[in-house]
Design goal:
eight-stranded antiparallel sheet, 3 helices, binds 6-O-phosphono-beta-D-tagatofuranose, globular, 21 strands
């Protein structure tokens, strides 16, 4: 059964291999992918590819610590005037989406669409008309997520200004993983002690970016394709319309202060987060913007 709907989640199973093969689980809360299991091209054993903290809330009481949280319409603390009432990382990850439809179900894979529109909670924080669709597609060695943002305002409505990001917690040994190619890119280091330093761009000189120390780097105008590599594995991230990418791992320095982070959880993942987070997408009324990522297991 390629698509199984539960009360709080949707389970995707690859049609070719059923429950013995690739799978994904998407909570309706936040449309958060909380599991992606896939074999490598050279094995048949599906392996969990995402990290979810053992202390993560999965009951909708707070955003999930792990998986793939959907960040929209603001990244980090809100800075745009229309986002002033929003929580960190916006409202997409802390509201319940609805299961919309099965988009694809064939030998190649299975794809489902979840949707979110203004509800009373959101309308208290954000008053621009919008409609979101989130499409998750599972293939044998791939998982893709597409965020479709529609400005449903009347033609007289001003453009909708937003940011969007997929906050991927990729399961990997944090002290042995590297991300490339980021060499030569301008980035902002959010671990700096002062606001002035955090607002000062740096140039990335490393061939492979590691997270062996507390890392919170926002790369702008990035290439849109990334290799996340460690001694026993590799995942490629390919994107469309996501011009920036964030690399984050709190290590113990910051991780031990995160209430829903399991002890030592920071050793088990790297966040490689494609997004449009430097500046804002400006979406005229009636138009739709799509941001996409494709995660592929290479090893
Ligand atoms: O994407 C990196 C980041 O913005 C970090 O600064 C850190 O705050 C992380 O997101 C997690 O944010 P959260 O609100 O989920 O605790």
């Amino acid at each position: 059964m390629p698509v199984v709907q539960k009360v709080d989640r949707v389970i995707l199973q690859h049609p070719k291999t059923g429950n013995q093969g690739s799978s994904a689980e998407i909570l309706l809360y936040g449309a958060t992918v909380v599991s992606w299991k896939a074999p490598s091209p050279t094995s048949n054993e599906p392996v969990e590819r995402l990290f979810v903290s053992g202390k993560a809330a999965l009951d909708g009481s707070k955003p999930v610590r792990g998986g793939i949280p959907v960040v929209f319409p603001c990244f980090g603390a809100p800075t745009h005037p229309t986002h002033a009432k929003l929580p960190q990382h916006g409202f997409a990850r802390n509201n319940v989406w609805t299961f919309n439809s099965i988009v694809m179900d064939n030998e190649a894979g299975v794809s489902v669409k979840l949707s979110l529109g203004p509800n009373p909670t959101i309308q208290q924080q954000y008053d621009h008309p919008f409609h979101l669709d989130f499409v998750v597609t599972l293939a044998e060695h791939q998982l893709s997520t597409d965020l479709h943002v529609k400005n449903t305002g009347l033609s007289t409505t001003p453009p909708m200004e937003f940011q969007a990001l997929f906050h991927n917690y990729i399961r990997a040994p944090a002290n042995d993983v590297r991300v490339s190619p980021l060499t030569g890119l301008s980035f902002y280091d959010k671990t700096e002690a002062t606001e002035e330093a955090r607002a000062t761009s740096k140039m990335e000189t490393r061939e492979g970016v590691d997270v062996t120390k507390f890392t919170d780097s926002v790369y702008e105008n990035a290439p849109g394709r990334y290799d996340v590599v460690w001694p026993s594995g590799a995942i490629e991230v390919r994107t469309i319309n996501m011009k920036d990418v964030v690399v984050w791992n709190p290590q113990e320095e910051a991780g031990a202060k995160i209430g829903d982070m399991e002890t030592g959880g920071w050793e088990k993942y790297i966040c490689v987060e494609p997004g449009y987070v430097r500046g804002y997408v400006k979406l005229p009324a009636g138009e739709t913007w799509v941001g996409q990522q494709v995660l592929t297991v290479k090893v």
